[in-house]
Amino acid sequence: MITIAIDRPRKNALGTETMQWLLEAIEAAGEAPILLTGSGDAFSAGLDLKEVASVDRAGMVRYLDLLDRLMTRLFIHPAPTVAAINGHAIAGGCVLVLCCDHRIAGADPKIRIGLNEVALGLPFPPRILEIARRRVPPHHLEEVVLGGALHAPEQALRLGLVDAIAADPVAAAGAWLARAAALPRLAYAATKAAVRGDLRLAPAEVERFDDLYLATWLSEDVRARVRARLAPAKG
User: Fold this and answer.
1) Over pLDDT 90: what percentage of the chain?
2) What would the DSSP string read from start to end of the chain?
3) What pLDDT was estimated at residue 206?
4) What is the pLDDT of residue 228?
5) How far apart (Å, rounded) are the C-alpha atoms in residues 173 and 7?
6) Measured by CB atoms within 10 angstroms of the end CB, which terminus of the chain is less buried, N or C?
7) Is beta strand 34-38 parallel, antiparallel or unpaired with respect to 81-85?
8) Domain locations in the chain?
9) Backbone phi, then psi, for 48, in 5-degree steps?
10) pTM for this entry
11) pLDDT tens figures, 199-221
12) In this structure, are residues 92 and 14 in contact, taking their beta carbons and an 8 Å threshold?
């Protein structure tokens, strides 16, 4: 079993360097079970908004491609994966959570978990939306992705963003992973692959995002929203 603890700047924000590090850590795990957690008061605060607000079109394409590759690799990891949600898991951080087989949130009511892309004016990249579609219960999907809200652990449990709440999420995640790792490995991997699929998308769906929505990620409106979101952290 491998523990991957995200310990990166800006509350474990998913900038290019952090995503590349995470992708390499997951790949290095091979076929071993993975416990994914964060450091400090954050699991991951989501996309690195400073980077999102500063890149040009080519840079945004590279950024979103790396995001896709990271999430896909975690989503299809053949062995059991568990998220120990020690703190905030927002936007991309919440997608990391959704990619894991089992998700245990800390009991602290101050923790916030959710997909707030719409609140920032960001259309979901198609593969990220597909992950949400497959991992959030259908009767809560629209509330989760269209509402753009962030939820305390109890509400996240109700919505199906997490599977359990524990006073010590890391310990609880370790116990779950030990049980899951004891299952026959080949049967687990084969069944997970059959249930999850491979996240392939129709080329037209990807082209539609690139043609219609990528420009929104680069728009001044979005950058103004991002600057406003970052402003309270200044000083």
Assistant:
1) 83
2) -EEEEE--HHHH-B-HHHHHHHHHHHHHTTTS-EEEEEBTTEEE--B-HHHHTT--HHHHHHHHHHHHHHHHHHHT-SS-EEEEE-SEEETHHHHHHHHSSEEEEES-TT--EE--TGGGT-PPPHHHHHHHHHHS-HHHHHHHHHH---B-HHHHHHHTS-SEEESSHHHHHHHHHHHHHTS-HHHHHHHHHHHH------HHHHHHHHHHTHHHHTSHHHHHHHHHHHGGG--
3) 84
4) 86
5) 18
6) C
7) parallel
8) 2-196
9) -75, 100
10) 0.94
11) 888 888 888 898 889 999 999 99
12) yes
Q: How far is CA 194 from the centre of its chain?
A: 21
Question: Comparing C-alpha atoms, which of 71, 74, 69, 85 is closest to residue 12?
Answer: 85
Amino acid letter, 229: R
Q: Mean pLDDT across the chain, nearest whole number?
A: 94
Question: Given pLDDT bands bounded at 50, 70 and 90, which one contains residue 232?
Answer: low
Q: What class, spelled out in words, does domain 2-196 have in CATH?
A: alpha beta
Q: Which amino acid is at 104?
A: I
